Amino acid sequence: PMVGAPTEPRDRWEHRLTDMGPFCVLDAAATCDLDAGKIAVTVVNRGDVELMTEVCLRDVAWAGQVRVRVLTDGGRKAGELGLNQVHLEEGSEDAKGPRVRVTLPARSFSVLEGEIDPGV
Fold first, then answer.
1. pTM for this entry
2. Is 115 within 8 Å of 61 (Cβ atoms)?
3. What are the tens digits of pLDDT across the range 61-118?
């Protein structure tokens, strides 16, 4: 899914943010330590709906269970601030080779951590 940028005054930025969009709702990044045999993948869901997605590694595979930790905004409306409503959920998912399916709540930050099988 894609999302457009919010409109902003023309004189606030050198380049208009809206001219750079639309933007993907999901952002992902990975850090891998091959010597230790571990990988961490972070995924941000900026959207207003929960998404079932599949994280697929390239050149390595998950080795067994993947630990999943998810931070959500506790159901606040967009634009509201307050750390007292941050909610942490923890669990695990079974990986199938390089792929693992996860549910990403709306407006969430997720971390997937696991062992890797570099022999793939």
1. 0.76
2. no
3. 999 899 999 999 776 665 565 555 788 999 999 999 999 999 999 989 999 999 998 6
State how far the Cα of 51 lies from the Cα of 65, in Å rounded to an integer.
Answer: 21
Q: Are 105 and 70 spatial neighbours (Cβ–Cβ below 8 Å)?
A: yes
User: Would you state the structure tokens that stand for residue 94, as one six-digit string?
Assistant: 């079974």
Structure tokens at 104: 């990403």
DSSP codes joined into one string, the chain: -EEPPPP--TTT-SS-GGGG--EESEEEEEEEETTTTEEEEEEEE-SSS-EEEEEE-SSSEE-SEEEEEEEE-TTPPTT---GGG-EEEEEEEE-BTTEEEEEE-SSEEEEEEEEEETT-
For residue 58, give every residue at least 6 positions away whose Cβ sits within 8 Å of its Cβ, in sequence order, or none. Answer: 98
